[in-house]
Amino acid sequence: LEVVESGGGLVQTGGSLNLSCTASGFALDNYAVGWFRQAPGKEREKVSCISSDPESYYVDSVKGRFTLSRDNSKNTVYLEMNNLKPDDTGVYYCSTDDYKYMGQGTQVTVSS
């Protein structure tokens, strides 16, 4: 039973990445799913969250640039990230809303 993040990488300012959070062993659509990021030397922060309805939440710094979606047939939640900025750099984690399942993270690096 786990979730696995993928899709990180190195992009230039203004670039895009599409992160995936895929669950195995359980139905991800039974949970709200959150994305968190941790930048070097900073605490982990919640970036966005999508409910089962689905309704979405975004922290102010990513509104208008990040979009959440979920494909229940693939047991996956996606985080589309556009117009990336150096401040978006960090390790991105996904987690179920009860924090029972959290992945190992995927590195996102945005160069200036």
Describe this structure in words.
The protein has a 6-stranded mixed β-sheet, with no helix packed on it. A 4-stranded antiparallel β-sheet has the order 1-3-8-7, with no helix packed on it. The radius of gyration is 13 Å and the shape is globular. By secondary structure, the chain is mainly β. It contains no helices and 10 strands. The model has no long low-confidence stretch (mean pLDDT 96).
List keywords for this structure.
112 residues; mainly beta; six-stranded mixed sheet; four-stranded antiparallel sheet; 0% helix; globular
Helix percent band: under 10%
- Provide the β-strand percentage band: over 45%
Q: Roughly what is the average pLDDT, rounded to an integer?
A: 96
Radius of gyration: 13 Å
Sheet with the most strands: spatial strand order: 2-10-9-4-5-6
Instruction: For the record, give the distance between the C-alpha atoms at the N and C termini, rounded to a whole number.
Output: 38 Å
Coarse structural class: mainly beta
Low-confidence regions: none
Overall form: globular
How large is the count of helical segments?
A: 0
The string of secondary-structure elements, in order, is EEEEEEEEEE
How many E strands?
10
